[in-house]
Amino acid sequence: MYRTALNQNETRSLDTRQKALAVNLDPRCYGTFAEIGAGQEVVRWFFRVGGGAGTIAKSMSAYDMQVSDAIYGRAKRYVCRERLQAMLDQEHSLNLDRLSDVRGQTTSFFAFADTVSARNFRGTNECHGWMGIKFQAHPRDEDSQIIIHVRMLDNDAALQQEALGIVGVNLVHGAFALNHEPDQLVASLLDGLSTSRIEIDMIEFSGIAFRNVDNRLMSLRLVELGLSGAAMFSSDGEVLQPSEFFYKKPILIERGSFRPVCNVNMDMLHCANEKFSQLPENEGKEVAQIMELTMSNLKADGTIDLRDFLARADVMAACGMTVLISDYFEYYRLAAYLSRYTREHIALTMGAHSLCQVFDEKYYTELEGGVLESFGKLFKNELKIYCYPCEDRDTGELMTSDDLKISPDLRQLYGYLQGRGVINSLDNFDPECLQIFSRDVLQKIKDGDSTWETMVPPKVAEVIKANCFFGYQREEAEACYAVR
Known about the structure:
Elements: H1 8-12, H2 16-25, E1 29-36, H3 41-48, E2 56-60, H4 65-72, H5 81-103, E3 108-117, E4 128-136, E5 143-152, H6 157-177, H7 182-188, E6 198-207, H8 215-224, E7 230-233, E8 239-240, H9 242-245, E9 251-255, H10 263-277, E10 288-294, H11 295-298, H12 306-318, E11 322-326, H13 331-339, E12 346-351, H14 352-358, H15 370-378, E13 384-388, E14 390-391, E15 398-399, H16 411-419, E16 423-425, H17 438-447, H18 458-467, H19 474-483
Parallel strand pairs: 1-2, 1-3, 9-10, 9-12, 10-11, 12-13, 13-16
Antiparallel strand pairs: 3-4, 4-5, 5-6, 7-8, 7-11, 14-15
Helix pairs in contact: 2-6, 3-6, 6-7, 12-18, 13-15
């Protein structure tokens, strides 16, 4: 394939026109473009650079929803993953059925599809879309697939369409030229664009070419590269698209390092969910409970340790938790992000020490309005904070949200927020969890002190021991047990 004629640096230096032309000039690439919603922005590139007859088997746009339903079957929404997958499956299958006997030995077939809602005439709609490619990396190969979800940030429909065309070309080119280097493929998706124009908040690789790809790492890569401010995956490792996952759900977030997940983390979430779910506006609704890792936490040592990240992801998965990776160190930025996706209530749960940091003015020096501006943004949609108490290890004194030690200048503001029910103390906690600190648990694991197993959920202990996470040494631990 043409990637064999291009070294890595040459591939990354190509502009959009050169990428489209490179695909057109590859005699093996042949397939269909099916685009709904914003015109045929991607295939237009392949037509206008020349040589399209060697690449384009068919180009179509089923713009009317009833026509689209008739071709691909009904979907819950016009722009959704379900519709995209139906398009990819059907168009790729048609290519294989119609053309395999004629040119299957020498052709890598593909189907590119997108379903997009660009800016409408009144500018009142959510501007986003699903885009994907189903393809053969080599002739007669099993299928592979890449799916992404994009948010268009330009204020002009024509600019949004232009950006979509560029992303689409990058995706098609990357599928054939960089399928052996998925990290670089992800990085190439915004070639010729900037993060001020397009956000990619979800990517999923599947199929034979990506059999060794961990989509959780690809989600991390999106945030690390700045292609998105956040990314999500479920406890089974499935990548999630935020607007679909959070749709019509109240949201409860716990931020932490989760090295590892301890009993206190689970108790904090359980207690907050119990209180949050009892609010009249949340009765009978499914609360989305999320554990959040921030990039600042993952990069605490300067760089991201991928094994450490996967260890944390695995122990959260053992607890059945959905994971959010975000680049929103400031809570008000996290709140703004979540508010995009739901009109339901949002809550944060945190320990008393963390709540003290929320009221530390040093974190808001970049805002003209300082801490007042940050709180205006944080609490504008009736966000609630549930504060888990902390116990002093020396005195046994309990610190709750009622006796928080904050700056005298902010005490009246703090009292006002408490009075409004924005800051709430958790009194339904398990006292046995108060003396558990993740840093102590981590040290006990490294030291071979088996008492750490009583401080984490049983399933977490199983995962740590089975995979030797967080410095656990199986042989040393077994020898220690034998002596005891």
